[in-house]
Write a structure and sequence with these properties.
This protein has 430 residues and is an alpha+beta fold. Among the domains are: 6-82 and 164-189 and 357-382, Nucleotidyltransferase, domain 5 (2-Layer Sandwich), CATH 3.30.420; 85-161, Dna Ligase, domain 1; 234-296, Nucleotidyltransferase, domain 5. The protein is 35% helix and 29% strand. Helix 9 links the parallel strand 19 (322-325) and strand 20. Helix 6 packs antiparallel against helix 8 (288-312) and helix 8 (288-312) crosses helix 9. It comes from Lacticaseibacillus suilingensis. Residues 391-418 are annotated as: Disordered.
């Protein structure tokens, strides 16, 4: 990929791997290639078999290469919010004994100073997001280069993730013959495309109903404030159909796609369809309503658990409502079911780009959008990380948003936990 106006997003999901190739022309991303393959070697969004995952990535990349007529070498990859942790960091350096002009090296030095800390051996730095620079007491500076000063400070947000998750992801990409351009937390990427400027500013809940897991992300003031991951997704709905109807998994998935709906109240007993049953030579007839009740039961459980986590941090006080996306959001009736569970306005986001008009493509589309909007100051700060992005990566137009990790596991004192969570979340709203 010699042309640096080409961006490739790689979304490694539990049930499918998607690749989107786009060309940046006069500030506009044009989709020129798409590829997808059935996932292998993944469980709940995490790679558990590197070789199988690498092969699935190669298949999806090959499809995208053929359609885009280019050779893909670098990719922007998304990582799930599983066990994501963040912390506020601050760095400070002396630019000189007397006022002197601040350079790229000074920015790198102050970012490196912010990273001076001891991490647990099982965690790795994922990304560092600058929120402001301060030059001799003058704050809220986005890019201090070219200014003069004696003291330079940087406030930022450090994202860390389990070392195993990041290592397996990077290794699978390497085995697939690719190099990393960026590693991005998936909710950050999705927020780039699924939310309007007003929704990201005033505050909105973004829910990704994926195949292996479901993620709720709270965005306020253009920053990701909270994430909660439920370890169930669309594949669990398919498994329920398979078990209850005693049919094969592939047949159950087809039933979900062809006849499934998440709102049983919108179905009728009289509408039936044939189902191939294991051990029987003739199919049985099943009503549309019965299938909807199976689907609705599992999704209600998932949404209810996410609802509890969001209520604990007063997320529903935000005016933007709820936006749902992800592969499972394609089910008819999902918006109505979510509104019943959350008791707040819900809308569904589906990409409107030609060839991507399915909510399962939101993450991959967000990845290329995120990469194309990076600024050079973001790149400078990111370059001090132990595993920085590719040296020739294009900078962004908007600083990445910051993500607070899921709070600590519950203790036996539930009332104290809820109170602490509200204080924690409230601090981000200030």
């Amino acid at each position: 990929m010699e042309n640096q106006d080409i961006y490739v997003g790689l979304d490694i999901g539990t049930t499918s791997i998607k690749v989107i190739v786009a060309e940046l022309v006069q500030g506009q991303l044009n989709i020129i290639g798409v590829g997808s393959s059935r996932s292998q070697g993944l469980s709940r969004g995490v790679i558990v078999d590197i070789d199988k995952a690498a092969e699935a990535i190669r298949q999806a990349v090959s499809q995208a290469e053929e359609k885009a007529s280019i050779k893909i070498q670098q990719v922007v990859v998304g990582v799930p919010a599983n066990m994501l942790q963040i912390e506020s960091v601050t760095g400070m350096i002396a630019v000189g004994d007397q006022s002197k002009e601040i350079t790229d090296n000074d920015v790198r030095a102050v970012a490196a100073a912010a990273l001076v800390r001891n991490l647990p051996p099982e965690r790795e730095m994922l990304s560092l997001t600058p929120t402001e620079f301060i030059v001799d007491g003058f704050d809220d500076i986005k890019d201090p280069r070219g200014m003069i000063g004696v003291r330079l400070e940087m406030h930022g947000i450090l994202f860390t993730a389990p070392k195993t998750v990041l290592h397996n992801t990077k290794k699978a990409i390497e085995k697939a013959g690719l190099t990393l351009r960026n590693v991005v937390v998936s909710p950050l990427a999705q927020a780039q495309v699924a939310l309007s400027d007003g929704e990201a500013d005033f505050g909105t809940i973004l829910i990704d109903l994926g195949g292996g897991q479901s993620t709720a992300a709270v965005i306020h003031d253009h920053k990701l404030k909270f994430t909660d991951v439920d370890q169930e997704g669309g594949e669990y709905v398919t498994k329920d159909i398979s078990v209850v109807l005693n049919t094969g998994y592939a047949d159950a998935e087809k039933l979900k796609r062809d006849y499934g709906t998440a709102d049983s109240l919108a179905t009728h007993e009289d509408n039936t369809f044939p189902v191939a049953v294991v051990g029987k030579t003739e199919p049985i007839m099943v009503s549309e309503k019965y299938l909807a009740e199976i689907i609705e039961a599992r999704l209600t459980q998932i949404l209810t658990r996410l609802n509890e986590a969001l209520q604990a941090v007063d997320a529903f006080a935000l005016p933007g409502g709820i936006v749902i996306t992800g592969g499972n959001a394609a089910l008819p009736g999902i918006t109505e079911l979510a509104q019943d569970v959350f008791q707040h306005p819900v809308k569904r986001y589906i990409p409107d780009e030609m060839g991507l008009r399915h909510p399962a493509f939101t993450a991959a589309l967000g990845l290329i959008t995120y990469a194309s909007q990076m600024t050079d100051i973001d790149l400078l700060v990111a370059s001090v990380l132990p595993n920085p992005p590719a040296a020739n990566e294009r900078p962004a137009a908007q600083a990445p948003t910051k993500v607070p990790a899921k709070p600590a596991e519950p203790t036996s004192d539930e009332p104290k936990k809820a109170s602490a969570l509200k204080r924690f979340f409230g601090n981000f709203f200030e």
